[in-house]
Design brief:
Blueprint lengths: L14 E4 L16 E8 L6 H13 L4 E8 L6 H11 L6 E2 L6 H11 L4 E5 L9 H10 L4 E7 L4 H18 L10 E5 H6 L10 H6 L5 E7 L14 H19 L8 H30 L7 H34 L16
Helix pairs in contact: 5-8, 9-10
Protein name: Glycosyltransferase 2-like domain-containing protein
Keywords: Cell membrane, Glycosyltransferase, Lipopolysaccharide biosynthesis, Membrane, Transferase, Transmembrane, Transmembrane helix
GO biological process, one term: lipopolysaccharide biosynthetic process
Length: 353
Amino acid sequence: MDTKEKSNNEAPAEIVTSNVKDIARLIKRRSENGIVSIVIPCYNESGNIGKTIDGLLDQEKKSDYKFEIIPVDDGSKDDTWNIIESYSKKHSQVIGIQQLGNFGQSQAYQAGFDIATGDYVLICSADLETPLENINRIIDYLDSGYDFVNTNRVGRWGGDRAVKSGYANRIIKKISGMDIQDRGSGMKGMIAPLAQNLKFYGDMHRFIPDYVSVYGARIVEFSTKFQDREFGVSAYKGHKRTVKVLLDLTTLLFMLYFAKKPHTMMPGRLFGFTGAIMAVSGGFISFILILGKLVFGSALSDRPLFTTGILMVVLGVIMAMFGMLGELLMRIYFESSGRKPYMVRQISRKSES
């Protein structure tokens, strides 16, 4: 769906991607607690983090919401934490997190998500590559009824890096069906239930839009201008990332096609159905051969097909047992983690007077 949004901001405001076909069906919402949590992963960002926090505090003055700014120091070796700590002591909106070591961007996001209290949870990179003016635009989209908002940085780079990014996006789009232009953008926003259900391992933060699509989230992506970072270099980029992305695509494929509807794609049904077909087929083959032995006196010892039939029966029973084991593991997963195989967008009830 391609449409235009009117805006006074300098950055282009074109909606480049949306899985909502009828905007009129969007239901406007309003954060109940009036808090927007903003998670900022940081690694050696001493030259940028202060400007980022100052910029967010300025954006808060233009918003009806109270900001909860959560910079996460991912084991920086410079003065990043000292700067974060000084801001957290001066401003009640700033809640700093210092990790014991450099665990990676996904884990920095997770640490911030785990303490976020806002009804809306936003992600903001510390490099200022995406203008902070987009923070309030993201909030406006969430208010209008979207569940997840992504930004597309226009003119961010060219050459070999653009080619690699283009190929990666096409592969991911083929798998997930989501035509997101800029999965690597450091500025995104979502409703709290989505953030609470996201559990990051490895480098799975790269596929946030694809994961939230599993829950049927209403997704929108709009364009914004790209700004080169003023200080430092990104610690979350490199040639090794390509290999990691390809490996993580395997997990993404499983999540999208087998975990999309856990109430229908249960292991017991998947393995049980396959095992039943194998067992019945093997039993039928064995029955025909045994019948031939009884009626026509055919020998079974020189019939490899008989061995195949027996083997199919055994394998079918084993697969059914794997299905039962999978059922138990899935139940343990949901019950022990407190997660649900569904997600509620909102609840409507009559208010007590």
